[in-house]
Each structure stands twice: as structure tokens, then as C-alpha cells.
Amino acid sequence: MDENLIRIGSVSSINYEDGTIRVTYEDLDDAVTDDFPVLHFGGKYKMPEIGEDVLVLHLSNGTEVGFVAGSYWTDDDPPAFSGPGVFLQEFAAIAGVAYALYKDKKLRIKAPQIILETDAGEVDVDTLIEAET
Fold this sequence. Notes:
This protein has one helix at residues 125-132; strands at residues 6-15, 20-25, 31-32, 36-37, 53-58, 66-70, 87-90, 99-103, 106-110, 115-118, 121-124. It is mainly beta.
């Protein structure tokens, strides 16, 4: 069995339109992969940042083909919220700037600006809050 099937590397370039990235393996003399697709779950689109560590899954027929499973929490980069029954979706590169959080049977959405959009039009949430005060 090839010991290089599951690897950790750092994002070196991103193709946003195709949903692919190239990964650099520092432990392999800075070898760079071809463009690998980034796995998505439930159609979510969130590309990792340049320099971010990611987990890469190579196919068993060679290390030239693979998929990027994504980034992961570390001691230096823990989740902003955690616990049983918690669902957190970060939207920004910096934790706590923009997110959706379900915790204690409440859904909290935070962002610098929130716009609600329907087929009938859109409304800025700040406008709604100002109207209430």
C-alpha cells in the first residue's frame, strides 16, 4: 500500500471557476500537485485560502490524481463555536466575521451586511432594524 495516499499540504494556487487547487508538499522538496478538485458537501462552495493546510486524498493508481478533502481545525485555529447540537458555517476567511450559527435552538446569522432576497425584491436587514428603533 502506498504511504502517500493521504497527505497534508499547503494551498499554492486556486482556480475558483473550476473549483480546483494546487497543493505544495513541503516534505517532498516543495513538489506541487496538478489541479485537484476540492470536495464539496451538499453543494457548499468555500475554497481554502492560499497557504492554508489541507488534507489531500490521492487515488490508489498514483499520486498524480486526487481530491482535496479540505482544511481542518487545529490548536492554532479552533472552531469559533462548538458543542453538542451546534452547527456552524463560517463564510469569511477570519473566524467570527460572517457566519451562520445554530445553537441552543436559535439561528444566528452574522455579517457586516445582510440582504434578504426573494422573487419580489430584496431588503437590507439594517433598514429593517432602523425602522424598528
